[in-house]
Design a protein that fits this description.
Elements lengths: L1 H36 L4 H22 L8
Helix pairs in contact: 1-2
Length: 71
Amino acid sequence: VVAAGAALDYSNASTQRYRLQSIADAAAMAGAREFRLGNASEQVIKDSVANHARAALGELIASTQVSTAAS
């Protein structure tokens, strides 16, 4: 039972890590798009990255169910 629980925890952690990495990659790409426009200031690029990451993290948090009930 312990091994199955550990495997499930590892699987969930791996999935969350993958999701967070995808969010970071997409935010970096949003910043790169702003940079490529050529007329964006450093602050505009930073804001674009931050806004993209916040929006994606909000969606991730909303889609993640956490159970605090004892089993």
